[in-house]
Amino acid sequence: MASALQILRVPLARTGMMMMSTQTSHAFRRKAVPLIRNYASGAGEKSGGGVKLGLWGLLAAAGGGGGYYFWTTQQGGSGPRGASDYQKVYDAIAKILEEDAEYDDGSYGPVFVRLAWHASGTYDKSTKDGGSSKGTMRFEPESKHGANAGLHIARQKLEKVKSQFPWISYGDLWTLAGVVAVQEMGGPTIPWRAGRVDGTAQDCPPDGRLPDGANPSPKHPRDVFYRMGFDDQEIVALLGAHTLGRCHTDRSGFDGPWTNSPTAFSNSYYVEILGRKWVEKKWSGPKQFVDKESGQLMMLPADMAFVNDSEFKKWVETYAKDEKKYFDDFTKAYKKLLELGVPFPEGTPELKFKTA
Ligand code: HEM
Fold this sequence. Notes:
There is one protein chain. The chain is mainly alpha-helical. It has a domain at 219-332: Orthogonal Bundle (Peroxidase, domain 2), CATH 1.10.420. It has helices at 12-15, 55-62, 83-96, 109-120, 151-164, 170-184, 219-228, 232-239, 268-275, 301-308, 310-321, 323-339, and strands at residues 246-247, 256-257, 278-280, 289-291, 298-299. The strands form 2 sheets. A 3-stranded antiparallel beta sheet has the order 3-4-5. Strands 1-2 form a two-stranded antiparallel sheet. Helix 4 (109-120) crosses helix 12 and helix 10 (301-308) packs across helix 11. The radius of gyration is 20 Å and the shape is globular. Bound molecules: protoporphyrin IX containing FE (HEM). Protoporphyrin IX containing FE binds at residues 110-111, 113-114, 117, 150, 211, 213, 221, 238-239, 241-242, 244-248, 251-252, 254, 300, 302, 334.
């Protein structure tokens, strides 16, 4: 049961203090990428402890808040946290994004987006469990679910930030990392709310809730995303994140990037899937497609469902033509994804972060 002290806040709107300033879209920023391999170690586990209200919080409460938004949670070391505290976490995540020049295409951004999505995408709206709320991917069996192969790299990398800010919950850290990644790779500003509280291994969702890249049926993403509460337009908007990153033979078994700019957020995924001729890759690995012209880009059987189904394809065409609309729709759908199943207390403010 929630403690009376669990939530104690002074919404900024009421105190008259401005939220973090909203950034303009960085739609056209394209970053060159440096590259290393240095996975930070760290078990990244549990936090315990009861409700704590720090001195600052008591002073702020006594003084009417002093323009600070704060609350307490049941995770270790939590105290009063304001927008500026989360901006500091944002900046620390931004700092590690490209610190290992040899990692993949030079950025942890894509794998942070995938971590945020897989932590969130287990939500089931009928049972109301799963989702990012409890940061359960730290635990087995969820950490060992096939769909999460390779995500230990992102979790371990973020341990460095967790040790700098031990008060942040894993659910908040991972979803915030997903926001940082999108914004720092040139994507739209994603409003984000804090409030996830770490759970235990008992809270792990069952296996099989995330989509299977090998499944070519349009029914499959509908089954998975309708379960979370998304519609066709939102599903297609979310899929545009495949502009970023790549498949790895030692993680999913598939191989290669979807676009030529895997560390720049854009509508390229839609442009590529519509504009190129896709042929089956000749190899001993799982069935996937490569572009006929260069053989360098790839599509999963699951990606092809989005151009083989007329309702999905309509949205693919819309986003290929209109990057601004894509950015707007992605922002809404991604925010919704990261918040699935999180019991935010009423009045929890949306934070918007400055890019680093
Ligand atoms: C039908 C739905 C989806 C399927 C079947 C799917 C499947 C996959 C697969 C097989 C990989 C390769 C993993 C690896 O080998 O490293 C991947 C990577 C990725 N996915 Fe998805 N995905 C889906 C939806 C999404 C959504 C909704 C997002 C985000 C909003 C997303 C973001 C990413 C990103 C950024 C990567 C690259 C990760 C990296 O470079 O390490 N995916 N996805």
